[in-house]
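Letters spell out the chain; the tokens describe the backbone. To illustrate:

===
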Amino acid sequence: GPEGARLELDWREETGREVAAPQTFGFGSRLIEALIGGEMRGRFDRQFNASGVAVSISVPLKRA
């Protein structure tokens, strides 16, 4: 695409029970989100659905 090559990662956890978003996120979650969005110039999306948790990560790849 016009942005160049990207790494796309979709991760789903289906627990079989309803999952609710936490009221606060821990240091690790905030660090990952900040690194992907800032340092790596990528996108990080986290959703809490009735069937489980879904995470999507997209980061540009650099050419060597």
